[in-house]
Amino acid sequence: MFRLLNAHSTGYDERLRRCATARVRQVHVAVARLASISSRAALCALSTVTLVSAAPIAANLGRAATPAEIRAWDIDVRPDFKGLPPGSGSVSKGQDVWEAKCESCHGAFGESNEVFTPVIGHTTAADIKTGHVAALRGETVPQRTTLMKLSQLSTLWDYINRAMPWNAPKTLTTDEVYAVTAFILNLGDIVPADFVLSDKNIAETQNKLPNRNGITLKHGMWNVGDKPDAQGSGCMKDCKKAAAIISRMPDYARNAHGNLAEQNRIVGAIRGADTSRSAATELALLTKGASSGNGSMANASSSERRGETAAAANAANTAPLKLAQKHACTACHGVNNKLIGPSFTDIHNKYGANSATTLAAKIKAGGSGIWGSIAMPPQAHVPEPEIKAIAEWLAAGKF
Amino acid sequence: MTLPRDDRRSFLRKAFLAASAASVAASAPRAFAQMSAEGDPAILNLPAHTKGLGQPVAARPYGLPSKYEENLQRRESPGLTRVGAAGVSFAPLQGFFGIITPSGLHFERHHQGWWDIDPAQHRFMINGLVKNPKVYTMDDLMRMPSVSRMHFIECGANTGMEWGNVAVPTVQYTHGMLSCCEFTGVPLKWLLDDCGIDLKKAKFVLAEGADGSSMTRTINLANALDDVMVAYGMNGEMLRPENGYPLRLVVPGVQGVSWVKYLRRIEVGDMPYAAKDETLHYVDLMPDGQHRQYTSIQELKSVITSPSGGQVLLDKGFFNVTGIAWSGRGKIRKVDVSVDGGKNWRTARLETPLLDKCLTRFNIDWTWDGKDAILQSRATDSTGHIQPSSMDLRKVRGTRSIYHNNAVQSWLVSANGEVSNVQVA
Lengths: 399, 425
Hints:
The structure holds 2 protein chains of 2 kinds.
Chain A: H1 2-8, H2 20-35, H3 40-52, E1 63-64, H4 67-73, E2 88-90, H5 91-101, H6 103-106, H7 125-130, H8 146-149, H9 153-163, H10 174-187, E3 196-198, H11 202-206, E4 215-216, E5 245-248, E6 270-272, H12 279-291, H13 300-326, H14 344-351, H15 356-365, H16 384-396
Antiparallel strand pairs in A: 2-3
Helix pairs in contact in A: 1-3, 2-3, 5-10, 9-10, 13-16, 15-16
Chain B: H1 5-22, H2 30-33, H3 41-44, H4 48-51, E1 88-89, E2 108-109, E3 123-128, E4 134-137, H5 138-143, E5 147-154, H6 171-175, E6 178-187, H7 188-194, E7 204-209, E8 216-220, H8 221-224, E9 229-234, E10 237-238, E11 248-250, E12 263-269, H9 276-279, E13 284-285, E14 291-292, E15 301-306, E16 311-313, E17 317-326, E18 332-338, E19 346-347, E20 349-350, E21 360-368, E22 373-381, H10 390-397, E23 410-413, E24 419-424
Parallel strand pairs in B: 3-12
Antiparallel strand pairs in B: 1-2, 3-4, 5-6, 6-9, 7-8, 7-12, 9-10, 9-11, 13-14, 15-17, 17-21, 18-19, 18-22, 20-21, 22-23, 23-24
């Protein structure tokens, strides 16, 4: 590295002299590290570097970006629409794009709160006038939709263009992006059904966004040196009369994150609580322990279970789950919850224990119409033995 | 632990007494439950590892944690996100020591899945308001002089589920979108200088990733010219794929979403870019219905990691209460700990090193008397900011903000030894 610096000192660029001081400091840090190995070579390096430490660190590293390369990557569109490529798209063409490429995840009307955040909803004609969505002010704001928050139209265009469809980003044409953006705005009653969105009218369309005035930069978390808006108290003694508990985990959620005994270390000053039991049962056991003269609050059986049964069970069951994760089945299937496709548990319940062969065939071929309107794409790319392992696991139903 | 010698002996004796009594009790800690009259079989009967030959070197060429440590894993919070490729996994803070997050337990947040990208094909471009737009290979970047620095990374939505009420049981889920590593790379300023940044016009830079989401985030020029770095190293090895291999932006003190992974491009510009994750997400909803945009700095925060929610104290008596504190505005100056829900506070010991925009470990002695106790920690940073309570925060920001909840965390220790997540007024 240091020889490199030396070599490039000839190509020294005046422009970089200005920041040389900062760099010298950094190089010295690097040198100090090297020197700490205290070999003679390192000391030699030290003197060389001191000589050339004003040299630009990166000269002759990297190369000029070509115009075509910049075009290929520089796709961002700013709030003032700088970067927006020319083009146009109608609401009706947008509907075609939506139905073919977006609806499966976002719902026919962008309402899909079943799987993803809804894109459309809770904006009104009055909001379009004020430019601030009234529903955001209420105490009971519904799940916030994209259009409720959208303050800059460039954001929507840029994001669809760079990231959607989620599983095949950057496959839409420029005109398709205009069209599907127009369709979304039409679903939100912001533009009429015969509207054509283009680079020419996008700035005026911006002025119709229901939440265009809904953002503020007045806060202390953007510029270095800004002041925080919430300050705590430095009181050390008798700071309040009582500490009232105003919120705690509801009992029904006790085991919602899995058994916490299995999420803590098995040695040390503490153990994880066995949340597979109710607090009351645990408490009864603990009190029994305490009344027998044992001051201990720990729970032996949970550590036993953790050590033996759980480990054995996990070894047997997690491998197919890992396969399902590896092949992105879990992008559409939850073990217990319905996502885009049915849950693994529901699949097991429907087909039962002797279904491994049937399920393997179904996985390979994909299918539609059994669980709803969304199709499952064929999974022929998954190696046969792995499909078999997953199918057997689904049939066994021991998740 | 700074327990006087005699106290320590009596504590141990007590523990042993409890242990021998417990040999019959159902709820005894396992190690003591096996105690017999002659003593502990773990001592009396020499185990296999004392009487046999162990495994050779490089039996596991890339080492792994002990099988007994399996409980400490990254985990998802059920129902939080619907799909794993746009999801979160939380770091098990309840089991960490010190301040460094093991690379394999670094929290994850992906918007469009993660990739393991061939570093030989990865390119990094700088364009926009620069004299010479340039492209660098990983070879180029790794040939440059490097810096190594330790910083925390926290997702802006960390503790976001707890704005209105208690929602999740353990510190893994309340605070686990937080990690702290040593990062190695090239200061962004050097590279901007190399491309001839136009400092008269430049005000912001846009960072962009190479994955499907091509994640974009606006970075303030003041940050970009200060301590932002283009990093390839993490904890002495290359970044893990889940954390952006082979290149990510490190933006000390700023929320994790700005630490763009699979970094492919920096554009120098003169206005903020209003990217999707700056307009639709990572905006903080205020009581007046306005969204705060570009809320970036991760403010002062601390949390006790043990004892913490979902744990059970093994016994009455001595405990080392331990936790972490951090501030996106500088160093940690002080951490106070309360065991009575904020009525009285004592100042904890801070462990070195005390670094800028980095986790700081704190410890304090506590003797539990077996009664209900509410543990809290409250940090002060080098700017004099004192960590707010949830009440302090709600007064200004309401409860619907989702992001940037840096409230004091409360853990209730119940008489049965179980610790649970509570909120206290």
